Amino acid sequence: MPRKNLLVVAVWLVLSVACGSGDDSVPSTVPSDTSTSVGEDGGTPTSNPGSGSEPEEGTAGTAATTATGEGAQDGAGTTATAAATTTATTTGDGGSTEPDGTDATTTTGTSEPTDTPVTDDPSPTTTLYAGPVSPVSGLPVLDPSRLDRKLIAVKVDNHWNSRPQSGIEHADAVFELVVEAGITRFIALFHHSDSDWVGPVRSLRPTDWTLVKPLNGALTISGGQPWIVDGALSNRVPLIGDMGPPLTARWSDRQAPHNLYADTAEARRIAEDRGLDQSPPPTLFNRGPSSASPMDVATYIFLDWTDTTDVVWHWDGDQYLRSVEGVPHQWIDQGGGTGQIAADVLVVLMAERRTACPSGDGSCVPAWRTTGENRAVVFADGLAQVGRWSRADNGDWFTLVGTGGEPVTMPAGRTWIMIYPETAELVW
C-alpha cells in the first residue's frame, strides 16, 4: 500500500473516533473571457504545497449574452452565434493505486461485463411513498407546488480554500467531477429545495452542461471561457452568471475567487423572468428497497480521485459521511453553523477522461465522456451493487442496470453522483 494511502486511512480512522462518525469574468449571463492560459481566465494560479494548484478566477468582465429556452441572445436581443467548436483527445486520468486490505473489495476495468442485455424495463420509477415525491431524491414533498417548477443547478468550488462549502447540505442531489489540478468540483441540484447561500460558486466546464441538459435545469456559474459557454448555449442549456445582489454576493470572510455565493430562489425568479421552460426534471432513478445483495457490504468506501484528492465515505448506519484527505468534510451556513457533508445514496459512474480544446482562442480543460456506456456502482444502506450505466445522447438521462441487465433500485434520499475516472480503482 502506498505510504500516502496508509497515512490517509490512519488519519481518517483517528478522526472518525474523535468526531463520531478559471474562473473567467463573472457575467450576468455569459462571460466575456479572452484568456488563453490554463484555467478559467488565465489568472495566476494559486498553489497548495504538495497538493497541486488551481487557476484563479478573473475579477472583471462584461455581460455579453442571455441564455433562453430557445438559444442565446445578446443584451440587445439579437441572437448570439455559438461559433466555437471543440476537439477532444483521450488521455490518462492519473488514477493511482488504492489501499488494499483483507476485507476490501476492488472493482477493476476487467471485472465487469461489456455486454449486459436488459431483461426488464429499466425506466426510473418511484415506489416508496404514496404521496408526492421529488423526482430527484425520491423523498416525499409536503408542498406539491414545489415539484412543478424548474431545477436550478449551481456549480460549487471544491478547492481547499473553498472549504467548508455552503448550501450543498440542502441540495436534492450533487454531482462531483474532476477539473484542473486534480481537484473536483460539485454541481448542486435544487428542485423542490432552495438555499439562499450556496457556494463558493465557480465557472463552467465542458462536461457540466451535458449533466444538466437532461434535467431541463438552469445552471448558475461564476463565468466561463467563451468557447465553453458557447457549447452550453448552443445545446440550449441556460446559464445564469454573477449578476450581483440579490442573486449573488461576495463573502468578506473569504478571498476571491472562493467567495461568491448565490441564492437559488432568486436564480429561479430570473429563469422565470427570461421565459425559460419551467418543466420539472424527469425521475432520475428507480427508488425502492435496494436491489443490492445483502452479502455485498460496503460501509467504508475509498475513492482515490487523483494524486491530490482522496475521499472516504463512511456508512454510519443511517447515512454516508464524507471525509477528504483524512479530515471530515464540513459544510457551513451563513450564520456559522456547521456539520459534516452527508448523503443517503452514492452513485459512481465510471467515465473516460478527455481533454477538450477550443478551435480558436482559449485554453484546454479536462472533460469526461458521459454518453455510451461504462461501469457503475451504487452504494445504499451500507451495500454495494455493481452494474453499468448507459445513455445514447447528452439529452438523455442515465439508465442503470445490474450485471444481469436487471434495473437497479435504490432507496430515496440525498444522492451524490460521481463522474469517476474509469482507470481509478474503487475500494470498499
How would you portray this structure in words?
- The protein has 428 residues and is mostly beta strands.
- Helices cover 10% and strands 31% of the residues.
- The protein contains 4 helices and 29 strands.
- The protein has helices spanning 3-19, 208-212, 226-234, 264-273, and strands at residues 46-47, 53-54, 65-68, 71-74, 86-90, 106-107, 152-156, 173-178, 184-190, 218-220, 239-240, 248-250, 260-262, 286-287, 300-306, 309-315, 320-324, 327-328, 330-332, 338-340, 342-343, 345-358, 365-369, 372-380, 383-391, 399-402, 409-410, 415-421, 426-427.
- Strands 5, 7, 8, 9, 10, 11, 22, 23, 24, 25, 26 and 28 form a 12-stranded mixed beta sheet that branches.
- β16 and β17 (320-324) form a beta hairpin.
- The longest helix has 17 residues, at 3-19.
- The chain starts with a helix and ends with a strand.
Biggest pleated-sheet summary = 12 strands, mixed
Which residue ranges are poorly predicted, with pLDDT under 50 across at least 5 consecutive positions? 1-120
Structural class by helix and strand composition: mainly beta
Rounded radius of gyration (Å): 20 Å
Helix content: under 10%
Distance, first to last CA: 15 Å
Shape: globular
Number of helices: 4
How much of the sequence lies in strands comes to 25-35%
Mean pLDDT metric: 79
Overall strand count: 29
Which SSEs are present, and which pair or pack?
Blueprint: H1 3-19, E1 46-47, E2 53-54, E3 65-68, E4 71-74, E5 86-90, E6 106-107, E7 152-156, E8 173-178, E9 184-190, H2 208-212, E10 218-220, H3 226-234, E11 239-240, E12 248-250, E13 260-262, H4 264-273, E14 286-287, E15 300-306, E16 309-315, E17 320-324, E18 327-328, E19 330-332, E20 338-340, E21 342-343, E22 345-358, E23 365-369, E24 372-380, E25 383-391, E26 399-402, E27 409-410, E28 415-421, E29 426-427
Parallel strand pairs: 7-10, 8-28, 10-11, 14-27, 22-28
Antiparallel strand pairs: 1-2, 3-4, 5-22, 6-29, 7-9, 8-9, 12-13, 15-16, 15-29, 16-17, 17-18, 17-21, 19-20, 22-23, 22-24, 24-25, 25-26
